[in-house]
Amino acid sequence: MTGKIDRGNYIKRFRPEYEVIRYANHNLSKTDKVIALFLGDRGYYMDFDVSFDKTWFQKLIVASPSSGNALMEIKKNGINHLILRFDLLNDWINTSLDEKQKTTLVAFFQNHTRLLYSKAGYGLYMIIP
To answer: What is the SS3 assignment for 29?
Structure first.
């Protein structure tokens, strides 16, 4: 036994989000645009167009009067998928949003996303109309 480990298993050992990233790499095209929230700025193993601008997303939710308005802004920016770290998203929701903003965010996820894959506290969502 050489003790060698392949790239994917090595990354998975140190990056718990990697299983979701690997799924996205195999199922998204290079032209899909993804916003990654609460993952840090580690895009070097992502084979798709990704933005880590959680501040933009946070301002969007705070400013949107409805989930439909949030959807229009997301679509206007060409984003068609989200990758999330659930625990940090929940912390942000519980510490930073008022009840109206929480309602908008919940409605956005219920009405305008579909969970494609989830593992180890991370999830990949597709934006739907």
So the answer is: coil
CB atoms within 10 A of CB 95: 7
Contact between residue 124 and residue 20 where contact means Cβ atoms under 8 Å apart = yes
Per DSSP, 84 falls in state: E
Phi and psi at residue 71, to the nearest 5°? -60, -45
The structural domains of the chain, ordered by start, are 7-127 (3.40.50.12610)
Q: What is the pTM of this model?
A: 0.87
Torsion angle (degrees, nearest 10) of CA 66, 70, 71, 77: 160
The string of pLDDT tens digits covering residues 76-86 is 999 999 999 99
Give yes or no for a contact between 86 and 122, defined as CB atoms under 8 angstroms apart. Answer: yes
Q: Give the ranges where 1-129 is alpha helix by DSSP (H).
A: 7-14, 18-27, 54-63, 67-76, 86-96, 99-112
What is the rounded CA–CA span in Å between residue 40 and residue 52?
7
